[in-house]
Amino acid sequence: MSGDLAGSPRINVGLLALGTILSSWIGTTGASMLMIRPIIKMNAWRKHRRHIIVFFIFLVSNMGGCLTPLGDPPLFMGFQRGVPFTIHAGEAAGAESVECALNFQSPNSSA
Q1: Contact 45, 6 (CB under 8 A)
Q2: What's residue 90's pLDDT?
Q3: 12 and 50 in contact (C-beta within 8 Å)?
Q4: Which residues, 6 or more positions from 40, have their beta carbon under 8 angstroms from its beta carbon?
Q5: Among positive and negative, which fits the CA dihedral 86, 90, 93, 96?
Q6: Rounded to whole angstroms, how far apart are CA atoms 111 and 107?
Q7: Mean pLDDT, rounded, of the chain
Q8: What is the pLDDT of residue 25?
Q9: Digit-coded pLDDT (tens) for 43-86
Q10: Angle 28-42/9-26 helices, nearest 10 degrees?
Q11: Hey, how many other C-beta atoms are within 10 angstroms of the C-beta on 17?
Q12: Is the pLDDT of residue 40 over 80?
């Protein structure tokens, strides 16, 4: 891949904004796969570049999916097919109490 755009702050903000909007259209995984290479290549000359990848993950891989009107497309497809997304409060409380008990159990106990 070649090009003449250098990873200046203005270009980086533009690409992150484009990636965020793109991820709400084609999905977070597709947009991340499509946009990560140009971001890395354009900022290869920088000494400090880790923050760019962190912002990329926050914006394109996570927040961009919040902008889609359907939420997560696989969840929407499941909803259309009748998959129940509600859980009874009693079942949730029981599962959480078991999980808490397992998490707080001492590693040396015999229980």
Answers
A1: yes
A2: 54
A3: no
A4: 53
A5: negative
A6: 10
A7: 75
A8: 82
A9: 888 898 888 888 888 888 888 777 665 555 666 677 777 777 66
A10: 160
A11: 13
A12: yes
CA dist 44 and 71 (Å) reads 34
The pLDDT score that the predictor gives to residue 108 is: 56
Among positive and negative, which fits the CA dihedral 83, 89, 94, 100? positive
With tokens 């969840």, the residue in question is 75
DSSP state string for 39-55:
HHHHTTT-S--HHHHHH
Instruction: Name the residue type at position 39.
Output: I
Q: Give the dihedral sign, CA 9/31/40/57.
A: positive
Distances (CA, A) of 28 to 40, 57, 83, 94: 17, 10, 23, 33
